[in-house]
C-alpha cells in the first residue's frame, strides 16, 4: 500500500472527486480526515469509508474561515499526531458570462476556490514544516489552463491555484514539503450528471478519448502525487483531461 499509515486531509471530501480520493487513500492504507461544509453528506461518506475498514474521521469545515480551517488541522494532529498530506479539493462554481457576472458571483468563487486553498495550504504547511515533511495537493482545472466560456471567476481561481502551488514548491522544498496541483478535465461528477445531455455530449466530444473522466481517475493522480513514488515531483500541475483541448 503506497500510503500506509500516512495521515491525509481531503477537503470537499463528502462527494464526487473528494469522496473518490478519500476511498482511494483508504485503500492505499492512509488514515483519512474528510472535511466538508455539508455535514449530512460528510457523515454518510464517513460511514461508507469505515465500512471499507478505513481509519477515518470527519470534520465540518468552512474553508473560507481561518478559525474553522485551523480547527480542522488541530483536530487532525490531536488524533493522529501528524499530517502528511492535504488535498485541497473543496470548490464551487457560479457561472456567468463576463458581461453578466455579478460581484457576488465573483467574490464567492474567489473566496472558496482561492482563499480557501490559501488558508488550508498555509495551516497545513505550518505543521509539515515543523515535522520536516509533507505534501500539499490542490485542485486546479483544465479551465484554469485554457479558460472556458462563462467561467471568468472559476478560471481565475484555478489558474491562481497553479501559481500558488509553484510558489509553495519554491518556498517549502528545502523544508521537506512538496506542493503539486492536479488539473482535471471534464469528470463524471454528480454536478455534471445534472447537466443537459447535449452539454455532456459536447464535453465528451472535446476529449480525444471520447468520454468523461471518472472521479477515480483523478483520485489515482492524487494518490500517486501523495506517495513516495512522486518524491522528486514538486511545483507540477498534472493534467488529467483525456487530452481535451478547449
Helical stretch count?
9
Calculate Rg over CA atoms: 17 Å
User: Which regions contain 5 or more consecutive residues with pLDDT less than 50?
Assistant: none
Overall 3D geometry? globular
Structural class category? alpha/beta
Considering DSSP H and I runs of 4 or more, what fraction of the residues is helical? 40-55%
What count of domains describes the coordinates? 1
Amino- and carboxy-terminal Cα gap: 36 Å
**What order do the SSEs take from the amino end to the carboxyl end, as H and E?**
EHEHEHEHEHHEHHHE
Mean pLDDT: 96
The strand order across the widest sheet is 3-2-1-4-5-6-7
CATH superfamily: NAD(P)-binding Rossmann-like Domain
What's the CATH first level?
Alpha Beta
Write down how many β-strands occur, each being a DSSP E stretch of 2 or more residues.
7
CATH architecture: 3-Layer(aba) Sandwich
| Beta-strand share of residues | 15-25%
> What name does CATH use for the topology?
Rossmann fold
Please give the largest β-sheet: 7 strands, parallel
Function: Catalyzes the NADPH-dependent reduction of beta-ketoacyl-ACP substrates to beta-hydroxyacyl-ACP products, the first reductive step in the elongation cycle of fatty acid biosynthesis.
EC number: 1.1.1.100
Keywords: Fatty acid biosynthesis, Fatty acid metabolism, Lipid biosynthesis, Lipid metabolism, NADP, Oxidoreductase
Active site: 154 (proton acceptor)
Amino acid at each position: 500500500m503506497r500510503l500506509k499509515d500516512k495521515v491525509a486531509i481531503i477537503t470537499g471530501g463528502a462527494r464526487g472527486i473528494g469522496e473518490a480520493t478519500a476511498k482511494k487513500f483508504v485503500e492505499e492504507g492512509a488514515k483519512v480526515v474528510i472535511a466538508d461544509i455539508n455535514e449530512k453528506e460528510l457523515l454518510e461518506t464517513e460511514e461508507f469509508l469505515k465500512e471499507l475498514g478505513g481509519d477515518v474521521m470527519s470534520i465540518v469545515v468552512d474553508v473560507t474561515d481561518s478559525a474553522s480551517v485551523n480547527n480542522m488541522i488541530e483536530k487532525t494532529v490531536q488524533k493522529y499526531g501528524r499530517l502528511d498530506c492535504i488535498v485541497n479539493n473543496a470548490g464551487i462554481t457560479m457561472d456567468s458570462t463576463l458581461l453578466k457576472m455579478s460581484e457576488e458571483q465573483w467574490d464567492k468563487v474567489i473566496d472558496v476556490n482561492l482563499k480557501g486553498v490559501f488558508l488550508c495550504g498555509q495551516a497545513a504547511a505550518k505543521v509539515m514544516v515543523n515535522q520536516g515533511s509533507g505534501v500539499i495537493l490542490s485542485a486546479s482545472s483544465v479551465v484554469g489552463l485554457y479558460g472556458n466560456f462563462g467561467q471568468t471567476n472559476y478560471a481565475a481561481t484555478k489558474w491562481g491555484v497553479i501559481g500558488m502551488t509553484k510558489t509553495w514548491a519554491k518556498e517549502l522544498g528545502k523544508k521537506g514539503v512538496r506542493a503539486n496541483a492536479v488539473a482535471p478535465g471534464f469528470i463524471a461528477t454528480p454536478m455534471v450528471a445534472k447537466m443537459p445531455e447535449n452539454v455532456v455530449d459536447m464535453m465528451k466530444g472535446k476529449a480525444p478519448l471520447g468520454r468523461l473522466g471518472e472521479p477515480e481517475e483523478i483520485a489515482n493522480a492524487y494518490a500517486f502525487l501523495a506517495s513516495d513514488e512522486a518524491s522528486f515531483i514538486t511545483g507540477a500541475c498534472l493534467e488529467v483531461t483525456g487530452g481535451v483541448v478547449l
